[in-house]
Amino acid sequence: MRHNHTYLLLFSLVAFLLLPHTAFAKESPHKPIASLRVSVISGIPDILGASLSLKMFHPFELEAGASSLVLGYSFYGKAGASLQIFDNRLPIGTGWSVRGLLMGGYRFIQGEIFGNATSHAVMLTAGIEATLWLFAHFGLELQLS
Questions:
Q1: Number of domains in the chain
Q2: In this structure, what CATH number is given to the domain that contains residue 63?
Q3: Can you tell me the distance from the alpha carbon of 2 to that of 139, in angstroms, rounded to the nearest whole number?
Q4: Would you say the C-alpha torsion 68, 71, 72, 78 has a positive or negative sign?
């Protein structure tokens, strides 16, 4: 009788180690809702900026932002598509994800370099953003556009 318990325990341990674990397989992945960015020297002529992206309409994304220039300011709004390239997040929501972006929009620039100047522009941007998710709904994002 004692050997039967030993064999049962050994069989249970081997089965646990060899069988695939699917406890989290049916959980839905964590989807980003919004992204708040603060940028410093993000490009020429931007010095300091902030933007808000709404990502809840996947695969579509809306973004609005403002930035300060050397002697002026800028506002913009854009919309486009965001496609998932890579998602290696754990079921608890931590890990890496990479997305590709293609967006278009409008930018207003007001500056005073050699006098008062106003500029209106149509813009088209493409980029890749990598996010290190520290918590299920909080991550650090690196964007190349």
A1: 1
A2: 2.40.160
A3: 53
A4: negative
C-alpha 82 chain-centroid distance? 10
pLDDT in tens, 39-91: 777 766 777 888 888 887 888 999 999 988 878 889 999 999 989 898 899 98
Q: Which long-range contacts (CB under 8 A, 24 or more apart) does 4-13 make?
A: none
Summarize the confidence of residues 90-113 as an average pLDDT. Answer: 90
Residues spanned by the domain of 46? 27-144
Dihedral pair phi/psi, residue 16, rounded to 5°: -60, -40
Closest among 76, 74, 73 to 63, alpha carbons compared = 76
Spatial CA neighbour of 125 closest among 71, 72, 51, 57: 51
Give all strands of the β-sheet with 138-144 in edge-to-edge order. 34-40, 48-54, 60-69, 72-87, 95-111, 117-135, 138-144
The kind and range of the H/E element at 14 are helix 2-18
Q: Two tokens at 45?
A: 């002529």
